[in-house]
Design brief:
The protein has 310 residues and is α+β, with helices and mostly antiparallel strands. The protein is 32% helix and 27% strand. It folds into two domains: 129 residues, FAS1 domain, CATH 2.30.180; 141 residues, FAS1 domain. The strands form two sheets. The chain has a seven-stranded mixed β-sheet. Strands 9-8-14-13-12-11-10 form a seven-stranded mixed β-sheet. It starts with a helix and ends in a 6-residue tail after the last strand.
Amino acid sequence: MKKISGIFILFCVWFAGCKQDEPQPRSVSDILIEDSELGMLRAAIDHAGIRDAFKTSTVTIYAPSDEGFKAAGFADASAITALPPEEVRALLTNHIMIGKITKDKMALGLNNPVTMMSKGNAFLSNVNGGPFLNHARFTKTDMVATNGVVHVINNVVPIANRSVGLILKNTPDYSLFREALLRARIADPRLQELVDTTAKTVYSPSYTLFLPTNQAMIAARLSSAEISVTSPIILARTVAYHIALSRYFSYMLSGNLAMLDASYVTSFDVQSTGIKIKDRQSPPTEANLIKTNINATNGIIHVIDKVLKP
């Protein structure tokens, strides 16, 4: 009898040890705490006061890594915590969706609109096994938890709350291109959409604007005085050559792209040092994309340093 009792005790000890060795259930909160790449995100969550939301709610989190925050201009955690908590909270909730969406449940194709917890909209692309949220690439997928899933991304996705027209109106360095648009719409009414300052929804027609700076406009002899005496027809042809239908985030730019008038094509040269866009002149004008992926409610803006010629 003693021998049987001893065997039973040994079995219980062995079984308990096996249970401890098995992976224990983890919540989304546990994953965020344990992952070494997510230190800045943890600081942001604490500052925003939303850590408890990840313990029980069923969510999908697109989690910017530390390198992702740095790519978006945050040098370290203190740069995030220096912001008002409500601003950080709004930014973070633009990376969270209610419900559990693993990679195999993501719709295939480009620019599938998804609504985030912030009530803002983002675009989920899933092509050739490589998902993106807006311009942010997934670096880890399907970190599955008991109450959701975490995907790690390599950038921050801001909330789009201004139209292309409002961004142009409120940014001094884009004023000359806006002046050209305002005059050009006399000849081409389609351009009105690009100066409209109301907040369009993501389901409105979308555009990609390759936007020359004021310095680039002046170098191309398109100062304010020169715009005012240039034919609206000529201006319309020029500005339309900087606009493409649909949203093209920077990772989508390669090969040839038809502009607003389909017969007008630009091309892209993607290098480790950046992206260049070329017009169809001989020899072509090569403009550098000096700022990319400015997200608007009705499109995307990439800033360039030269004016393209149709």
